[in-house]
Amino acid sequence: MSKADRNRKRSQRRAGKPSVPRVIGANDNTLPGANDDMPEVVVRGVVLTPTQAARLAHAEANLADADLGRRRMGRDQTLALDAEIDAKVQEARRRADLDETLTLEARRGSSIEVSDRQEHRGRVRITSRDGLETLLTAHSITTIQHAAGLRYRDDYEAIDPEKQLTPPSIDQSRNISRGGDGYALKRREIEERVRDLEKMIQEEDRTFKGANGRTAVERTGRAVWALREIAGKGSNLRSLTNSGSVQASISAALILALDCAAVAYGLE
Predict the structure, then answer these.
(1) What is the Cα 78 distance to its own chain's centre?
(2) What are the sequence ranges of the domains in the chain?
């Protein structure tokens, strides 16, 4: 066999030999262009992930396309990405505000509790100034009354009255969609529980004047007002008034409300 024949046979064998399988790497599941070698892309102070950067590039290409459908697609892609960036910007601001609050209160020597509830995650309560804690420490209320106040606080914070949300029993047009499946029903149950408790308290409170009251306290009743301010919001008696006699009347009204709450929550 000549040398040319041997070379031809060798070439034929190589052509029929299967190729070596390609090693599957971590980048196989990423979008085209989304790799660690890409330079950082920063939008409004937010560093985009490689996938987000690739999506942005894809959206910009669609926006520059002559086809109207592609441009609409690019617009939608840009809006979706902008919403993600905005969420990160807001979260960064919340963290900065929280860090500033914690730093200032720590310098003042305050004891701080940060809520981890989903409805108002990150809310700061200064426990060293908490009205319920102060009254319990001073033995002005019992442990059962304190527990009832905390149960009311959970409900009060869950319905978030500080955001001035009108209960659905009054405003049927309000559509609650946040919180996932079942959230609206759960919220309604809490609102009704708080409403029934406050109605029970008002039936026992002689200061309750309803619509005939001349002041906001008279229209809700001093006991309900005290429960909202001290148990609900965590206010301290001294922050409400400097008068010793008024503090005593508020404390008595609060105890009436806490006793009713203990019964309503099944603690007695």
Answers:
(1) 26
(2) 33-109, 128-264
